[in-house]
Amino acid sequence: MEVLIRTGDLARALKIMPTKVTLYAQLGLFKTKGRTEGGRYLFDLDENKRRYETILKLKEKRLTLDEIAKQLK
Fold it and tell me: Residue 13 and residue 58: Cα distance in Å, rounded?
């Protein structure tokens, strides 16, 4: 079941800063599922939790964020 949440909620769930969530969304590391009426990103919680786990594993291998983005496409 798809649970859509805002940037701050995803940041709290992943224990990261909201600015990192926004950056990762802009780089294509996190997938957005649209925007609120106020223009804020909406994210699928489960999908982006899985993506973040993959990002952390790839960062351990010393990949750059651009390289990680290519891997996640």
Answer: 20
Instruction: Check if the beta carbon of residue 44 is closer than 8 Å to that of residue 6.
Output: no
Give ∠ CA 40-72-34 in degrees, rounded to 5.
20
Q: Say if pTM beats, i.e. exceeds, 0.85.
A: yes
Q: What is the pLDDT of residue 73?
A: 85
Whole-number Å distance between alpha carbons of 14 and 43: 12
Report the amino acid identity of residue 14: L
Q: What are phi and psi of 32, to 5 degrees?
A: -95, 155
Q: Which of 13, 16, 18, 50 is nearest to 31 (CA)?
A: 50
